[in-house]
Amino acid sequence: MAVKKILAMLCVCICTGNALDVMASNFSDYSEQSNVTTTSTIKPSTSTTTLPTPEMSTTEMSSTEMSTTPSTTPFIPTTTTSPTTFIPVSPTYPPTPKPNPPNPAMNWVVVDEQTNVTCIVVKLAASFVIPYLKVNGQMENVTLALPSNATSSGTCNLDDLEHGQEISLQWYADKSGSPNTLTFAFHRNVSSGTEATGKESVYLSEINLSVYLDSENFVNASRVGNYSHGNLQNSLHSVPVNNSYRCNSEETFELNLIEEIDKVAIIHFAHMQTEAFRTQNDDKFHSAVDCAADKVITSDIVPIAVGCALAALVVVVLVAYLIGRRRARQRGYQSV
């Protein structure tokens, strides 16, 4: 009986020792795991990776690798749909070209360098209709205007009046080309004798127009850069010496083109006043001789004005008669 108790106690001791060994081994494992420090900071779309150091143990490295596993949380973008606003846009049309007003009449002069005498004074506004041939064989007309910035030059020939006097107006339509030129030639019918001065007259003997066919105005011209010459030889605007010629109405002349005989250029003058063979140093016009067109306008105005005045007089007389007759009737009734 005693032997059985001793054997039982030995078994209990053996079992108790094994259990203590198991508990000790588990406690050591737990203590090793508790010594490992793992830091993991979770931020939006940011992960913190801890690199292994030489002092780290295998367990620490494995735990670090596990802690740095990237998060697989899907990112769902937020889409905001705003209503589309349509703004009506009106169609863009090229601006409607406005008609160019005629250039105002300007004064141009020719001064003799030796005597300082202003021998020619010209004032006018002008436009030209120039026909030209296009590359496709068609004829086209171009209208040019005499600009106000045209320059003047000419000759006085004070010592030899029989050769006449000239004034040329020049302007550039294209700076890379040659100038356009409008030339007036004046002559004087020189008489002899003691009364020659009173009988002498000055007249416009020639008009010459030279136009440079630039590419801007003469589009698709067959001969861009060449000249088109127009010439008119006739006795025009004859006035006595020391008088000026004046015509506010529009005058139209046809210039025969030298290069194309069957074509003509049309020149329009307005508010024109010219005077040549002057002997003064100023640029003032002498007494003017009006053209026939201006005289017609003046003669029409006078009858119209007289007729209006007579009509107004008749109305006044009629109204006065009616008023007087009415008053006479009222007096008759009062006397009765």
Topology:
Blueprint: H1 2-34, E1 42-43, E2 46-47, H2 58-67, E3 106-111, E4 118-133, E5 139-145, E6 151-155, E7 165-171, E8 180-188, H3 196-199, E9 201-212, E10 227-240, E11 244-247, E12 251-257, E13 264-275, E14 288-290, H4 292-335
Parallel strand pairs: 11-14
Antiparallel strand pairs: 1-2, 3-4, 4-5, 4-13, 6-7, 7-8, 8-9, 9-10, 10-12, 11-13, 12-13
What would you say about this model in short?
This protein is α+β, with helices and mostly antiparallel strands and 336 residues long.
General description of the model:
With 336 residues, the chain is of the alpha+beta class. The protein is built from 4 helices and 14 strands. A hairpin with a 6-residue loop joins strand 12 (251-257) and strand 13 (264-275). It starts with a helix and ends with a helix.
Keywords:
336 residues; alpha+beta; twelve-stranded mixed β-sheet; two-stranded antiparallel sheet; 4 helices; 32% strand
Order of helices and strands: HEEHEEEEEEHEEEEEEH
Structural class: alpha+beta
Report strand %: 25-35%
Mean pLDDT: 73
Global shape: flat
N-C termini distance: 189 Å
